[in-house]
């Protein structure tokens, strides 16, 4: 029996790249997939429709959704499409995102609003109705896409980093609120070749960062292979998979150990307050 037999998966931003890789792999493993994307190819065809037809042609179950999920109505219509076509909504992968990279002082209000609207508000618009349906129907699995940019920062991506850091907070709360209803929530920080990055890479790099590698991680997340795990954030590429999480140093405490914590006592206890681990950069994750 396939890992996702009789499951229905909703995937946003799935017309190409990572989202398309997820859709194909989940369909290959028995899921019916609802492919959301508003993008079109050079011939004016919706990417979501082209991919859905391709999956259908190989015996898979797929349908396209071309609504704009940056609106609440668009998010609700995605769930409606899944229920009308397949009768369920067992898996949600929030993958849709855009970039408007500029250094902080060159960033415009429009750049800020567009990235936050698609990457964070759009996720809320989709997740809320699906979460509500899952709560009333025995649970499900949700994967929200963050980024190492949001966790550690990256030059020229202030708006994108702010949105993706928000995704981590959103996911953490969703995991807490969904656990008693059988809703498992993951955060994913992927590294993969995209239409933007492929021209800058050599063949070896493109192979190492092929989206299919990240898709396997997503399959693990949304299937029974991951058991009851929830509330975790995974980094995934063709080279490594690792959990990302905040950790705390021992620190110093008030009354008892340090009756008076002032600026001088903080300076004197820096070895206890600051972590000894090296600070990570985006390049560290590429290794």
Automatic annotation (TrEMBL):
Residues 7-204 form the Ketoreductase domain. Gene3D superfamilies: NAD(P)-binding Rossmann-like Domain. Keywords: Oxidoreductase. Signal peptide: none annotated. The keyword Nucleotidyltransferase does not apply. One of its GO terms (molecular function) is oxidoreductase activity. Coiled coil: none annotated. It comes from the Bacteria. Transmembrane segments: none annotated. Belongs to the short-chain dehydrogenases/reductases (SDR) family. This is SDR family NAD(P)-dependent oxidoreductase. The lineage of its organism: Bacteria, Pseudomonadati, Pseudomonadota, Gammaproteobacteria, Cellvibrionales.
